[in-house]
Design a protein that fits this description.
This protein is α+β, with helices and mostly antiparallel strands. The protein has three domains: 89 residues, no CATH class; 86 residues, Immunoglobulin-like (Sandwich), CATH 2.60.40.1930; 231 residues, TolB, C-terminal domain (Neuraminidase). It contains four helices and 28 strands. A hairpin with a 6-residue loop joins strand 11 and strand 12. Helix 1 packs antiparallel against helix 3. The longest helix is centred in the N-terminal third of the chain and has 27 residues. The chain is elongated and about 80 Å long. It starts with a helix and ends with a strand. About 14% of the residues have low confidence.
């Protein structure tokens, strides 16, 4: 019986050597893979020798049928062992598409600007001819086919892009990729500020979002057990309405969209929707790919959401689905930890967490076009142990005017933005 099993295994290994791992054949200089098979069979002899003695003993106490089932299982196990042996010895692992071709970007640089054109070429690494090539660019705002070369970078958003080449060959289609980074061509314009007016503000309000609507300020305050949605008569510092959140929520940014107030929570992956007039909660939604909830604003058509990274996500205001995102960059680096947001004159004003600065961001490209330096503003409020960073941007529509506050600040500042 062992001879039959041994022959069956040798046949299996012969098939493996000559079909699954054909590299064995030229290596051994024959047309049948007999060299590898012979080696494998020799190893089978080594493994099965002790079993022949064991077989004789088992036949005395175990029914032949049970022994046959046992040895069949041993045969399958050894087959797996020797299949692994062939894979290691012959080195015939499948080649990736990138082993055949690579993409060359010209000019060869690590970063590019929107004013440049990019030439694309495919280089062969092995002796496989490219019959034709289809090009595609994959960006944060979607993918599109490239119809002509060179590729203009003029209308692309900032950040990381991926070029895909579908290379048609006699061996099928090979897909290869190459990434590049796009940065703004110019450094951002710098601005300062002048304080025009000061208004009282609740020193216990851990401000996370601030926005004007119909002459009132709407504020979102954070911290577990202290989070709330508020309506303020800001000139007198009065809280007209205060809707506390459940203790499980840490409130973040907010925005007023039509007759709704939309409020984010931090790590709870939940957005809360209120009726603007009654402050009653009417809906909620879950985040999709964005990491957390930080800042929120709108342009009248879409919502814009930050998640504590260098990304700003665009959301459908009815379904709250994340549609796409931009990556925020200056001409030298990405801007991380983007926090409170405000839509002003076609741009997103983004507070950078733990920085005394606001970035003025193009909503389609992510390019930082300006930076407002607010150094010294925090020193204008009462200094106390619970005082925290700048975080609250609002606009009442006046050109160049911002209303600013921070976490546990006792004042709201009306400031004029001034060029430096």
């Amino acid at each position: 019986m062992f001879d039959g099993i041994q022959k069956k295994m040798a046949s299996t290994l012969h098939h493996t050597a000559t079909t699954v791992y054909p590299c064995c054949v030229p290596t051994l200089g024959d047309s049948t893979g007999a060299g590898c098979v012979g080696l494998a069979v020799a190893k089978i002899h080594c493994f099965l020798g002790p079993y022949k003695i064991f077989q004789h003993q088992l036949l005395m106490v175990i029914l032949p049928l049970k022994l046959q089932l046992l040895m069949t299982r041993i045969s399958l196990l050894l087959g797996l062992v020797f299949s692994s042996f062939f894979l290691v010895q012959c080195g015939s692992s499948p080649k990736t598409d990138g082993a055949y071709f690579s993409i060359e970007l010209l000019p060869k640089k690590t970063t590019y600007t929107p004013s440049e054109d990019l030439q694309l070429e495919v280089s062969a690494k092995l002796e496989l001819k490219a019959d034709s090539i289809q090009w595609q660019i994959q960006s944060p705002n979607g993918s599109k086919n490239i119809s002509s070369l060179p590729l203009s970078l003029e209308n692309l958003p900032m950040g990381t892009h991926k070029i895909k080449a579908r290379v048609f060959t006699s061996q099928g289609i090979k897909n290869v990729f190459q990434e590049f980074k796009l940065l703004p061509a110019h450094k951002p314009e710098l601005f300062g500020y002048t304080i025009l007016e000061r208004y009282p503000h609740d020193i216990k309000a851990y401000t996370q979002g601030l926005e004007f609507s119909d002459g009132y300020l709407y504020e979102s305050t954070g911290q577990y057990g202290q989070s709330s949605l508020r309506q303020l008569e800001y000139k007198q510092g009065k809280v007209l309405r205060n809707e506390p959140l459940d203790n499980a929520f840490f409130a973040e940014g907010l925005t007023v969209f039509q007759d709704k107030i939309i409020q984010l929570t931090w790590r709870e992956n939940t957005g809360l929707v209120y009726d603007k007039n009654s402050f009653q909660r009417i809906d909620q939604f879950q985040y999709d790919k964005s990491r957390q909830g930080w800042g929120l604003c709108n342009d009248g058509d879409y919502l814009y959401k930050s998640d504590g990274t260098h990304k700003i996500w665009r959301l459908d205001p009815q379904t709250y689905k994340e549609l796409d995102y931009i990556e925020v960059y200056t001409n030298k680096l990405k801007i991380d930890q983007i926090n409170e947001l405000e839509w002003i004159d076609g741009r997103i004003y983004a507070n950078i967490y733990q920085k005394n600065a606001i970035a003025i961001v193009h909503p389609k490209t992510g390019a930082v076009e300006g930076v407002i330096n607010l150094k010294g503003l925090q020193q204008q409020v009462t200094q106390h142990s619970g005082l925290d960073v700048l975080n609250g941007i609002a606009s009442d529509g006046q050109q160049g005017i911002l209303y600013l506050t921070g976490k546990n600040w006792d004042q709201i500042f009306k400031v004029q933005i001034t060029p430096k």
